[in-house]
Sequence to fold (622 residues):
Amino acid sequence: MTKRTSILIVGAGAIGSFYGAILKRAGCQVDTVLRSDFEVVKEKGICIISPLGDLSYQPDHVYRDGDTPESTPDYLILCVKVLPGANRAELVKPWMGQNTCLVLIENGLDIERELAEAFPDNPIISCLAFIAASRSEPGVVEHKAHGKLVMGSYPKGIDGNCQTLSVLFVDGGIKVDLTEAVVGERWRKCLWNTPFNPLSVIANGADTRTILDTEGGEELIRVMIREVMTVAAAEGYLMDESLIDQNIEGTRKMPAYKNSMALDYINGRPIERDAVLGNVVAIAQRHGIPIPHLNTVLVTLKMRAKLEGRD
Amino acid sequence: MTKRTSILIVGAGAIGSFYGAILKRAGCQVDTVLRSDFEVVKEKGICIISPLGDLSYQPDHVYRDGDTPESTPDYLILCVKVLPGANRAELVKPWMGQNTCLVLIENGLDIERELAEAFPDNPIISCLAFIAASRSEPGVVEHKAHGKLVMGSYPKGIDGNCQTLSVLFVDGGIKVDLTEAVVGERWRKCLWNTPFNPLSVIANGADTRTILDTEGGEELIRVMIREVMTVAAAEGYLMDESLIDQNIEGTRKMPAYKNSMALDYINGRPIERDAVLGNVVAIAQRHGIPIPHLNTVLVTLKMRAKLEGRD
Fold:
């Protein structure tokens, strides 16, 4: 009998808890590192309300920041928000083994680099989650829809670790798209996130419909998408012009929608400003590409943060 | 004995009340049209706390919107905020005589046009007030500093009405700069107001120091000033590049300062968005001049207004 694959989820919020459940269902050993929900999960496990059925589970080990792990995992899955000042390399360091594969299920662009630099000898898998899920109370996650992962080795390719993990996710019941160019997929997702998320914050929590129906709003979104595309192209990720129309039309077909950054802002939580926008602007500046619209939004968000003492 | 010059102040807030006091002191008949402060002023007059001395006065007539005037004034001084949906031509119409000279002491750019179109046969004087004053309670104005008016006939020149009125203001104790090109002076003032005022609102009421000290903030202000200059130049008002440095350095020398639009925003009052920014963007678009930074700020302000049901 082969040893079960061991998984450690660092940052078991809605996303981490859900994908942990999927891997648990696939027969893995699933441990978690928790902060605020530690006591509840230790006692009662993680409850997941999902259209996929009952996914509730008791992690094999429930750790807290600062604990000493019994062993290092095959895969460390990192699901924390990417915030300025949060040192993710320090966060995972105590849990990383020599052969641990580091898996990121996180939003944004150029978010792998600091980890690749900190752990140059460990394989890294980068994932994008297409899912609607939220933590309704400590230890309880509501999975509303979707769940697909787009996954590839970082910076590119699909290595054996990536294939193995993808099979486990599929066994657990979700769809996985493997990609040779996961960074390109991040750029593709940012075509939407980079304009819509920060604009919704600047507009004090506006939904997609409000943004697009404001006089000049759709035009502003289009020109911001175009700026992101120009930066992506300079990085070697060419995207078709038609994606602009597709993003606009796709959004118009959805009901009015408040994205996760808008919800974070409304609820007084920190926003993933740099992962979604600041890093795109920084890359543009390295290439000398003018991105006046993106930059205006970024600087105004920084002014707010400064006013609120957060920058 | 010649008839006293008659003045009617429409919109006697801090600015209107103050300049009414100056003209009262110069010996004019000064009437006011009031809304919320009508009862208080009718009974107690207007109290003005000022470094210039006791400027408190009882207007010769205190009118209310809808009243029938006893006579039409020589000068109607309009001091209301320039807000979308506020029809200023309708507001002054009942009080305008055939020979009444219409005087605007208001902020913004291209704010004379709708009045010039409504009253093509009346002379119009356009003024910029450089003053720190606020209404501390009904009928009470605190004049803190300054008070200079820059004044000229609209659209240009200095006619006899303008000369006469300027002499009265000087007699009353303030400094007046007469200008042959008052629209150019508006552009010059907008070099500061058009970037700083809306940015302070977008940044939730940030002061000048916060705006300039944010990473990328000074650079954003500079590029927005440059955009305003380019539009001004297309309208025939060439301004020297050195004004960019002058505006930045002048602002850095001041203590941290919340401009009037920031205060309006913080206090939940409507903001003069179009007078200060929207009209500049509209003129740029007529000329086909790209103003990406100004436009991004304008559209995001519109998104907010839409979200709040104000647009």
